[in-house]
Write the structure tokens for this entry.
Amino acid sequence: MDYDQQTFQTVCAMCNGMCGLEITMEQGTIVGISARKDSLSQGHLCPKGKAIAEIVQAPDRLKTPVRKTGDGRWQEISWDDALDLISHKLSDIKARFGAKAVAVHVGQTGVRKEFTPYLERFCRVFGTPNCSSSGSHCHVAKAMANSITYGALPIPDYANSACIVLWGSDPSVSCPTLMEDINKATVYGAKLLVVDPRVTKLARRADFHLQLRPGTDGALALGIINVIIQENLYDQDFVNQWTIGFPELTELVKHYSPSKVEQITWVPEAKVIEAARLIALSSSACVTSGLALELQTNGFQALRAIAILQAITGNLDVPGGALFVPLAKLASLAPENTLESDELAIGQKEYPLFHDHTKRAQANLYAEAILTEKPYPIKGMIVAGSNPMLTWPNTDKVREALTKLEFLVVMDHFMTETAKLADLVLPASTFLARIELWNGASIYGVQKLGLSPQVLEEKDCLTDWSFWNQLAQKMGFKESFPWASEEEALNFRLEPLGLSVESLKQYPEGYEYGQQRVKKYETTGFKTPSGKVEIYCKDLEEQGYEPLPVYREPHSSPLSMPKLARKYPLVLTGARNVGYYHSRYRNIPSLRKMSPEPLVEIHPELAKMYGIEDGEEVVVESWRRKEIVLKAKITETIDSRVISIPHGWSESNVNLLTDDQTLDPVTGFPAYRSLLARLYKKADCKRSV
């Protein structure tokens, strides 16, 4: 491409916030970045977006494929040689163990990105059922709970809501673009209710803050539903006409009186009652559950309970509630079934509903499968845009498993902790070097489809689409990958809409493919077997799960393991940082300045009890008898019985403390946010207080 000075309008893909960007290029270099006020993000740009030039031009970017030699050193090789090597190794493993012995995992970088369907297509054509994503521990549990309850995952209509409930969700950190609508709504009188174990910035400004014990969200939701039913505050017309299982729900929640809920959750009885009345009596309410609810052993059922709370208060598919917003109908890339046999994907037997929903393997079971070779051997793996060494549970076991593989390929922007274990590391291009589609429905509830154009070239780095396409050609899958270019492939995807890449360029703000209608269920019903909201779900019952959102104590908690809790008296949880995205960007100086090191948050009373000073090094040990060392941050934003550590750090990696055997029984999600732990001064010998 020939650059003088050009300005491009695009959408940031460094997280799921979809910030609108205007990027100015001069001679192939980024010279200006600004937020687009005409975009869905309304002129917002988070610190990660502001650091795009720094990320793209980082001196430690991977620039060429490198192969590990016999003495453990890295040797530069060409892309052609790298693709030949991958093709040879995968074919060899397939010949000896079957296609299922190869697994492919894509990280958050690919979850909502256009190249992911091509990656999945490659796996199907190759013949392996073991394609997985970060959906093994992010977002999918929430989508499953909502889909099983009422057929789809709705989008909160913050802008028009009279009551906004952020339950284990902090969009000011995880998706700051949504704060524009939340702020506007509260200015116009909307009440804000925050449910969080930590006193976040949003909790401080909220009208109500319910500071619960981590992992007890399900009990709190049932307690709120109890009050709503006992006081006849639910939407009786909606419940009578559009739900199944309300009588059974009524019986279930009788066991969760506000006083009982206080004992379980630590939330005062009066606050449980206040919250219930606020949600039920508001003219509209949207309840947003966040990632924290997914990462506990009772996560799926807790999410089900919150979904039911949204429904029985009459806040489904109405303005100010939760809206069902269809995605654009693109051409499917699913090929015919080319799997070699009826072998199940890893995790399919243990978590059949997860596989039914995603058609993917459950990655949290990979380490066990690799090490035990059960249900069958996994010998090769390609990891794209993911860092399992920092983001998967039980890091020591993950390291042992990845090291055992015959062949590990990692494709990333930087030499991550996982890449260091690989046999072959490939340099990935950033989102600015590819064209892809974006859809406003999944985040903003707006039926707009747009195009992110290619902004720059990155020499020697392949786009994800190009990599999977070229590998498919090398392996003889040309008939299944007939597209000569990325644009041609996207044109195929756009055919059902009568669009093309060229025509989509005419809509920089997005092509509006539909108009939002409310209460669509009145004419179409819900997308469930009964056509109604399934409070009591027979599908769950038939597969051996509880058909109602029953609360179960976290696997390790003060109540479920009282004897162990005497030795490990604290509950360990975690949170995010706005400058980072999971394990990414800690090598970027401007972002690192915002949060220079991992810290464990400790309440002043707890610090006094242990004799710990602010900034002092402490040891945190989980009930698994694994430990890490990090500095203490003394703060009143956390309960004295709880400590909080962020994930994603190579230094003080919190996943050294977590367990890959303690998973949600429905989804297979790990219990990151509710673990028994203890701490002590690094200078002292081990002791519990």
Notes: The chain is about 30% helix and 15% strand. The chain has a mean pLDDT of 93. The two ends are 65 Å apart (CA to CA).
